[in-house]
Amino acid sequence: MEKKKKLLIDAVIAVAVYAVIMVLLNKGILNRQMRSLLTPICTNVMLAVSLCLIVGFLGELTLGHAGFMSLGAYAGALVTINLPFPPYVSLIIALIVGGCVAAVAGLIIGMPVLRLRGDYLAIVTLGFGEIIRSVINSMEITGGARGLSGIDRMTNHKHFTLVFILTLIVIVIVSNLINSRHGRAVCAIRDNSIAAEASGIPVSKFKILAFVISAFLAGMAGVVYAHNTGILKPANFDYNTSIEILVMVVLGGMGNIKGTILAAVILTALPELLRGAADYRMLIYAVVLIAMMLFRNSKFNAALIEKKNRKTMERLQKEGN
What are the sequence ranges of the domains in the chain? Predict the structure, then answer.
């Protein structure tokens, strides 16, 4: 009963957010700058939530998420450029192809790499992201350093509806996975991989599963990014991009999907909203980052987490009875 109530509340919030945004768009209240932020916010939410699956729930530090994003972006862009289908049909195919290409790359890199842990895994995934960027930079089909242009852009209200729905789908996929039997196994591996393996959980299998799903979702986000900007350059998917996504996950709270969503929204919108502050823009941005970190470690936040854990324990006890 408690779970259904929570799902209903989340659904109402999602519908309310969409309704408010559409009213603001139709009434012309949002200026051009705010309208241009809607799709990037959704893109970063998808990227952050997909990375949260690895960093927050699996407990592995990876710095190659921009690599999966770039694979999805270029694969999806090449599909829509070369296929003679209507825009929406091409876009749906591009989302599937982009996600699958990134997932295959995740499987290939994940099988040997996920045997590593901690700093070693971070360094190897960082190297993977840079290798992907270098390969894209040297290929003629991707436009090389000049970039890939001629991509159909998603700029109107109907496109935002599609992107918003896609963002909700990504959130639902990760949330349902974490609340499933597989998700509990992933969290058990994060807490104690040795104990999880001793209890019969195939650690390598679930690590690769989480890694592939995360890569697939990042690839889809890359497709959305490509069709929002209309042009792709290898420099857009460098080390800094992976760090920006990681910061969203860390500030939102490791293993906290709602916090990750909120952090992605704030950290995407803030630099653009502060553009008028000129020289003080990055200073204010840094102060906000520090304030968010201080809040995460405050007694108030600890009390909220304790209250949430207590409610969870009470719910589990009721289900057990």
Answer: 31-239
